[in-house]
Amino acid sequence: MRTVMDLLRSKPIAFNNIDPDALVIDALQMLNSVNLSYLVVKKGEEFRGVFCERDYSRNVILKGRSSSNTKVHEVMTTDLPIVDVKDTIEHCMNLMLSRKARYLLAYDDQKFAGVITIHDLLRQVISNKEAVFDNSVAEQLLSHDEGRKIY
Predict the structure, then answer these.
(1) 5-20: per-residue pLDDT in tens?
(2) Which has more confidence, 32 or 139?
(3) What is the reported pLDDT for 129?
(4) Among 35, 50, 71, 128, which is least packed by CB within 10 angstroms?
(5) Are 98 and 83 in contact (CB under 8 A)?
(6) CA torsion sign, 8 to 123 to 125 to 10?
(7) Tens digit of pLDDT for each residue in 57-100?
């Protein structure tokens, strides 16, 4: 069974780190340029949290704050579920479901190793669908979708 470390190794290197004292407007521009839904907030090499699109909508827009004078550390997420690099993909999926999370923080002992997203797990399931679904389930899904157009 694949582990968190396997998944992290398969991900392309992302240049999506931002300082906690950066302005939200700069974080939004970076999100756009890296084409990701989250940024890793670090002070030097120390992990501090994650800034994502949801943080912006809930903690800036809905609270009437300005992205031009609000700092990332004021609105970032710091309480995400944690997994170990030795944990399985199945464990990650169950943890995301039970905690209703979109991101998991991966650690190797005490050292931050990366972020696992719901999209990472979906890609993993799709790429290994033979190992996830037996033929009868796959056939049921395929027959159920016959005649439907996917847009």
Answers:
(1) 999 999 888 789 999 9
(2) 32
(3) 66
(4) 35
(5) no
(6) negative
(7) 999 999 999 999 999 999 999 999 999 999 999 999 999 999 99
pTM: 0.78
Q: Is residue 25 in a domain? A: yes
CA distance 27 to 20: 10
d(CA 101, CA 81): 8
Are the C-beta atoms of residues 46 and 24 closer than 8 Å to each other?
A: no
**151 in a structural domain:** no
Q: What is the CATH number of the domain that holds 82?
A: 3.10.580.10
How buried is residue 21: exposed, middle or buried, by Cβ count under 10 Å (0-12/13-18/19+)?
Answer: exposed
Task: Name the domain count of the chain.
Answer: 1
116: tokens are: 């696992």
Amino acid at 18: I
Tokens 């949290």 map to which residue?
49
